[in-house]
Design goal:
Layout: E1 5-7, E2 10-14, H1 17-28, H2 39-49, E3 52-60, E4 63-75, E5 78-83, E6 96-97, H3 105-126, E7 131-135, H4 144-147, E8 152-162, H5 167-172, H6 176-184, E9 191-194, H7 197-213, H8 222-231, E10 237-244, E11 247-257, E12 260-266, H9 277-291, E13 296-298, H10 305-312, E14 317-327, H11 333-338, H12 341-347, H13 358-369
Parallel strand pairs: 5-7, 12-13
Antiparallel strand pairs: 1-2, 2-3, 3-4, 4-5, 4-6, 7-14, 8-13, 8-14, 9-10, 10-11, 11-12
């Protein structure tokens, strides 16, 4: 029987068949949701991570008021809970509230707190985890409910370009370096187009190769991205490819939903041309988004020092999301060990990438705790 938790009028339980059928409709009723909250993405993350997905729904009376997908895995002495699961380059997930447009600030805060309270109790009651890590969306700007539920809260940053100004005003807001690259590049030297399913694989392969050249393990599996392209509705994932002499030299894979386009993958520095490929591709994407009525271009991350100079030159707004973590007293070493995920990724070089799973990582952490 499914566990139900009620806290001050908010009931939280796992989605039933009716909730699953309506899940994406619920997602579309939230102003803080992302494409990663869609059921197609969550199901693929469950399959490829080999974790157990719990689709939690909050109700006030008979009305759904919040969604919270969490992933659970156990290995050795540990039970780990994530939202999102690690190693899939999913920046945002965590809780989203529905139909908040007409709520006062007081009612919004009260609802969010009670929803997080109920979900936290559900996780503790059902999973009894050693370690929990939640990552919020950048539009969920209030981490206090997690802090009040004994989570450690760490701010993280992203860059979001406002696409509402007209095209000339937008371009003028960029750094002189970016403006010059865009205005002086000869369009006869290159072309940029939205590609096909094959280009998704091609861009991911280019990205993987660039990481390998730097001696860095690329954690995302190419076939997962292709599967996500197939699973999501047409137009959610778009591969933008830059070609020189008919050959692809770079590009960016975007994922979009609502008013926001996310620069999800790619954008690596080309090695075969002196063209400012990334500047040109990002500008092309921004113009395409504006033409389709989108208002936000999210670079998805501003936490890598080596990338800040590039991203900041497009005059973005610095936005904040939060890592929220909680451990049991006897497993306090887990959080420290979990930060070694990059070390673990490097260990996977000797094995088939398709067989490297989140449960393998749990085993790795468990071995460190012995």
């Amino acid at each position: 029987m499914s566990v139900e938790i009620t806290t001050k009028g908010i009931l939280v339980r796992e989605a039933d068949d009716a909730d699953r059928e309506r899940w994406n409709q619920y997602v579309e009723r939230s102003t803080t949701s992302t494409p990663f909250h869609r059921l197609e993405c969550l199901r693929l993350l469950e399959e490829w991570s080999t974790m157990t997905l719990h689709l939690l729904v909050g109700y006030k009376g008979d009305q759904p008021i919040g969604l919270f997908p969490v992933f659970e895995t156990s290995r050795g002495p540990l039970t780990l809970v994530f939202s999102p699961p690690p190693s899939f380059r999913v920046r945002y997930l965590g809780p989203i509230l529905l139909d908040t447009d007409r709520l006062s600030q007081q009612r919004l805060e009260k609802r969010q707190l009670r929803f997080v309270d109920a979900v936290s109790e559900w996780i503790e009651t059902t999973c009894q985890p050693s370690y929990v890590r939640i990552r919020t969306t950048d539009r969920n700007s209030d981490p206090r409910p997690f802090a009040w539920n004994n989570f450690g809260v760490t701010p993280r940053c992203s860059y979001v370009v406002d696409l509402t100004p007209d095209e000339n005003e937008l371009l003028d807001s960029f750094s002189s370096d970016a403006r010059n690259h865009i205005r002086t590049s000869d369009e006869s030297d290159y072309s940029i187009r939205e590609g096909s399913r094959d280009d998704v694989r091609r861009l991911m392969k280019l990205t993987e190769e660039r990481h390998a050249e730097k001696g860095v393990q690329f954690p995302l599996e190419i076939e997962f991205v292709v599967a996500l392209y197939d699973a999501l509705p047409a137009g959610y994932i778009r591969p933008y490819v830059c070609l020189v002499g008919g050959e692809p030299v770079g590009g960016t894979l975007t994922i979009e939903d609502g008013d926001t386009c996310y620069a999800w993958q790619g954008g690596v520095k080309p090695r075969t041309t002196i063209l400012p490929v990334n500047d040109l591709v990002d500008w092309h994407i921004m113009r395409e988004m504006k033409a389709r009525g989108l208002t936000r271009y999210d670079f998805m991350g501003a936490n890598e020092r080596g990338l800040v100079d590039y991203k900041a030159k497009f005059a973005p707004e610095l936005t904040t999301y939060y890592h929220c973590t909680r451990t049991t007293p006897t497993a306090g070493a887990v959080e420290k060990i979990y930060r070694q995920v990059k070390e673990y990724s490097s260990l996977s070089l000797v094995r088939s990438r398709r067989n490297v799973r989140a449960t393998d990582f749990a085993s790795y952490v468990a071995s460190k705790l012995r």
